[in-house]
Amino acid sequence: MSATLDGRELILGVTGSIAAYKAVYLLRELTRAGARVSVCLSEHAREFVGPLTFRTLSGRPVLTDLFDPQSDAAVEHVALAERAAAVVIAPATANLLAKAAAGIADDFLTTLLLAARCPVVMAPAMDGGMWQHPAVVDNVATLRGRGVTVLEPDTGALASGLSARGRLPEADVIVDAVLAALTPQRDLAGERVVVTAGPTREPIDPVRYISNRSSGRMGYALASAAARRGAHVTLVSGPTALTPPPAATFVPVQTAEEMREAVLQHTGAAGIVIKAAAVADYRVRRPAEQKIKGKRDLTLDLTPNPDILAEVAARSTGAFIVGFAAETNDVVANARAKLEAKGIDLLVANDVSRRDIGFDAEDNEVLLIDRWGGSRALPRMGKPAVAEAILDAILALRAAHPARKAVR
Length: 408
Ligand code: CTP
Fold this sequence. Notes:
The protein is an alpha/beta fold.
């Protein structure tokens, strides 16, 4: 990244994780990149690393206690927050994420976060089980929805002895994220983007339905990344447990037919359509009006759902259309055949036979296959990072094929 942190005022917040010692290296990297850093330690961080180390490396007093009458810092949090170009919290514990999401201000760092109007980057570190806890997942989604950059923790050995996602990201990744937060990408400014996400539910009777394991995470990550990059986003979503990004227009649907209607209604003016939803292929031809009783054999009469993606592609007069393919075998060949059959521009293929990526997983490892014969494998990453890479690919392909509209 070409930007620099030269002369930028940063606040480095450190909270009470075993990874707190790594904040010392991060501080060194931030100052090496030219930043002037004020360090703020939470009470528990101080039990892992003493303030003297941070004071020596930053050349500034370390901020600790909001309520210490001896401390000049007691009244300084607002002035400091106003001066800062960015706040970086590394490591950010599950507790810090929860307090930040709820707006709790009970120490210097959390009070400063409420006063800050600058970009905020959080680098979480915690036990893998904690990172996946629904409360943490919700808090991260809330923070991201507000524009906070919450990095994905790394996967590897944790203090508990287990190997899982929960390690503090490397210092250079955090420095890059700070640079990115200070020079936000607005390369989708003014663009209309429609994203579909989640599963659909096809009723069998008033209480039962056919559906699939899609969590919606990939589509929600795409919607929030596109909104952050300046797009007007419409998110058409089947039922998920996720909080929609506040910047997007949210259109909740249940069935494939409802999704089709919503998508066709919103794609008219769209420049980019991304169909990340896992649409149920079949629906029950005539769902029972009353709850089906009894323990006898039951045969469901299924009929195929409309192929929304193919229909959008057939009707489109110029939108860049992206589909997803869930494959279990011969991923490349099947994906290319699907791209051609549906007449779309880019297909994001993932291998759903693996439980650690793709469907209902935190990470994804996808193959990007485009209609001009190109294919590119992305490394395994968290879904927010995959979302950014997909948007980058869309913009690059569009720029490389300006005559695309005429070809369709
Ligand atoms: N899709 C759609 N409407 C459908 C089925 C799928 O719009 N009725 C879209 C999905 O949102 C996804 C893409 O088509 O972007 C591929 O979905 P997938 O389930 O992999 O493919 P299918 O078309 O269902 O083909 P198959 O089940 O034969 O693999």
